[in-house]
Amino acid sequence: MVRPVSPWQVPGNRARQRELKRDAVIRAAARAFRERGYHHTSLDDIAAVLHVTKPTLYYYVASKEEMLFECFRAGLDRIAAACSQARSGTSSGRERLIEVVRSYVEAITSDFGWCMVRAEDQDLGPELGARIRQLKSGIDQEIRRLLRAGIGDGSIGDCDPKMAAFALAGALNWIPHWYRDDATLSADAIADRFIEIFVQGLAPRPEGASSGNVS
Amino acid sequence: MVRPVSPWQVPGNRARQRELKRDAVIRAAARAFRERGYHHTSLDDIAAVLHVTKPTLYYYVASKEEMLFECFRAGLDRIAAACSQARSGTSSGRERLIEVVRSYVEAITSDFGWCMVRAEDQDLGPELGARIRQLKSGIDQEIRRLLRAGIGDGSIGDCDPKMAAFALAGALNWIPHWYRDDATLSADAIADRFIEIFVQGLAPRPEGASSGNVS
Amino acid sequence: MVRPVSPWQVPGNRARQRELKRDAVIRAAARAFRERGYHHTSLDDIAAVLHVTKPTLYYYVASKEEMLFECFRAGLDRIAAACSQARSGTSSGRERLIEVVRSYVEAITSDFGWCMVRAEDQDLGPELGARIRQLKSGIDQEIRRLLRAGIGDGSIGDCDPKMAAFALAGALNWIPHWYRDDATLSADAIADRFIEIFVQGLAPRPEGASSGNVS
Amino acid sequence: MVRPVSPWQVPGNRARQRELKRDAVIRAAARAFRERGYHHTSLDDIAAVLHVTKPTLYYYVASKEEMLFECFRAGLDRIAAACSQARSGTSSGRERLIEVVRSYVEAITSDFGWCMVRAEDQDLGPELGARIRQLKSGIDQEIRRLLRAGIGDGSIGDCDPKMAAFALAGALNWIPHWYRDDATLSADAIADRFIEIFVQGLAPRPEGASSGNVS
DNA sequence: TATGAATGAGTATTCATTCAT
DNA sequence: GATGAATGAATACTCATTCAT
Q1: Residue B201 and residue A197: Cβ atoms within 8 Å?
Q2: B72-202: which CATH topology?
Q3: Any idea what DSSP says for residue B121?
Q4: Residue A3 and residue A10: Cα distance in Å, rounded?
Q5: Residue A118 near residue A126 (C-beta atoms within 8 A)
Q6: Distance, CA of C101 to CA of C98 (rounded, Å)
Q7: Distance F19 C1' – D35 CA (angstroms)
Q8: How many CB atoms lie within 10 A of CB C212?
Q9: Distance from the D63 Cα atom to the nearest Cα atom in chain C, whole angstroms
Q10: B2: Cβ–Cβ under 8 A, 6 or more apart, which residues?
Q11: Is the CATH code 3.40.50.720 the one for domain A7-57?
Q12: Where along chain A do its domains lie?
């Protein structure tokens, strides 16, 4: 599947073009940041990819900082959405947690995954930095909540929810580090493996134990 | 315990001073990088902490890049050492893996932890970058090897060693992200919790199952 | 009295609208220049005041430079008119000079006053810059001429006309610097005080002297 | 008399060189600002005059804004000094005022004269802008004070001190506008003429009146 | 050893201006 | 008449690095 890189080449419905173009700018930024890193990416780089000149970018985005922020958000929003959906779910804590993990992997393997985890929120000013930290914290809290719910309803064994959340989020957040160069698995496949590992643990299962049934 | 920040203030044995000072430079760099990020740290910042002028740093270090490299290495070497020790160990795969995890957590909560995981190897030139990637890869391979050993000797349940290694390393590597602001646990305590989570998994243990015994 | 800021809001006689709008553009520019300075005023600022977009301005004006030029001229023309009227006058040199001063103060306290004196003619290209310098020089020459006429007809004491013209013009041109923040006096009141000071001088008048009669 | 433009060419006493160089930077800035205007002067321009590269300027000065501020101050300080000296004087108000005028003209015909009056304090941030406005206001107040003193001791005729101060300062501040292209008179000569004009006024002196004696 | 001084290379940002619609 | 979109040119500022002393 070839995704057209630049909507500047394919004109069309004028009214919506603007929105599309802005998205293209953000996406191009996300890719460039992932490939070269935020600080090693100049606006000229991004503009070049889009076959546009640098000031044009400013027509769609206020600053480089805003680009980074939007990349952050594009990814985090998806996960946050999954979290809030999980909240209103009725199934067991474990099952709902597993759903969140699936969405998490989906989001983090996207173009924006890198930004979500590798970009320093130090690169954002206090304003935007705070908003990102808030989003991240919200996700963390929701994961802990699901863990506690699972412990409560018996679908998850006794554990320290805070540490478990850190371990789980860490494993997930680390995906962009190796996924870029080793994208042999689909997001879903990765999710399956991770769920298995985290649910069953590494210890050998006693014969006939069935609680490790994945979902 | 007050650690002297700068050896320039306490003269002594001339011969070894140099080595000490170089260490101080690296360590000061590590702290600054952790606090402000690599790109937001100027050599002036580091020099100021050491009560030294910028060109003096070059007497001990060839470049900013080298500082970063040394920070990387300071942390990775410790883990690599633990890995090679594990290799020559005789106990079960699981037990040896657990030992590696302990050393890992120890190393990653040090001043150099941040650099090991947050610094982009993109900030290193091809030369040094390659060496870092090699070190990291070696550690990854060793973890997979231990997992396979554990599966082989029955101390670890059936799992995908590659994904399990990714999950484990991810959880560990993520520690610096939250540890800085939430250093309420000792490295050993963190290691214990993580080991428990990864060994037993999150699924509720059937009554009387004992295989989750941590070490 | 509320002056409508933008004629774009009140349509009407098509033919003359254009002229009105052009004037509105110039006037809005003059105000913005006075408030923020020429270089700190962007065309967007001016457009925003008029509730119009930037390119629209170009429909009425060729360039930012032309705006400045027109502001210059709007003020200078008024003074030049007063000068040429003075030339054809028949009263004494002093009386005619005083009339010029009145018109001068009137003009310089207008919206365009700032531009007349604070705007750098360096901001105009050689073409327009030369025209402005010519206008200014003409005014200067006329003032000197009136001074010489006054000396000739005995209504003005012996003095260096060039320096006197510089002193007088300087005092007048400086008005915008303090008038903006201290507009407690009317233009006429300011003119009266200035005339008094320049005619009588600061030295104490001998008793009974009457030559200081202001107009 | 040729003033060496750049101390970079003539090394010497190391300790004081720095101070000299900083002064040279400020002075070069002042000249460039006078010739091309603040906004039309790039740091490259200034650096080129000094046969130095742009970053070198930053070794001596924090920003372009600071350059402007120092130019402002270099001139204003001289006048302020004359003012404070006048304050402690014992001669008549008129005589002390005349001394201030002499210093004023001296200062305003210097390289820094242009900055004192043509530079917009809008080009300075709120911090430095406020300090400049304060300096200017102090000078204005002192002139008014001298006028009132003169009126009190009978050396100056009855007049509105505020307006008289504005007129006098305006005439003086305007000097840079014409002095650059018409430097045929020395500062002292200009001062003499201005004093004569302001003291005696333009009205014809009655025969035998002697109060116009200049100092 | 250590430093004061200088620099080259790089980059985000602004803005007047143009043009197709 | 008016505008959305795009651009070229210009510029202040930062910083790792070097070198004479």
Answers
A1: yes
A2: Tetracycline Repressor; domain 2 (1.10.357)
A3: G
A4: 12
A5: no
A6: 5
A7: 36
A8: 13
A9: 18
A10: none
A11: no
A12: 7-57, 72-202
